[in-house]
């Protein structure tokens, strides 16, 4: 973590070390939030395209093709 590196780095000023230490302590006291990327139409299109490619790929098992088809049906893409 960069904050810890700044705290231990002898080339960083005391003021910067104190600021980094304060930020680091604040981060530890707050619960970690999970951030998910925003879902948009473009990513849905790409995901659907991947499943469709799976269905046409001769190197993919029948089970995987059936799974891809089921997912596409659930998503309303076929």
UniProtKB/TrEMBL annotation:
<dbReference type="GO" id="GO:0005737">
    <property type="term" value="C:cytoplasm"/>
</dbReference>
<dbReference type="InterPro" id="IPR018824">
    <property type="entry name" value="Conidiation-specific_6"/>
</dbReference>
<dbReference type="Pfam" id="PF10346">
    <property type="entry name" value="Con-6"/>
</dbReference>
<dbReference type="InterPro" id="IPR052670">
    <property type="entry name" value="UPF0654_domain"/>
</dbReference>
<protein>
    <recommendedName>
        <fullName>Conidiation protein 6</fullName>
    </recommendedName>
</protein>
<feature type="region of interest" description="Disordered">
    <location>
        <begin position="1"/>
        <end position="46"/>
    </location>
</feature>
<feature type="compositionally biased region" description="Basic and acidic residues">
    <location>
        <begin position="32"/>
        <end position="45"/>
    </location>
</feature>
<feature type="compositionally biased region" description="Basic and acidic residues">
    <location>
        <begin position="15"/>
        <end position="25"/>
    </location>
</feature>
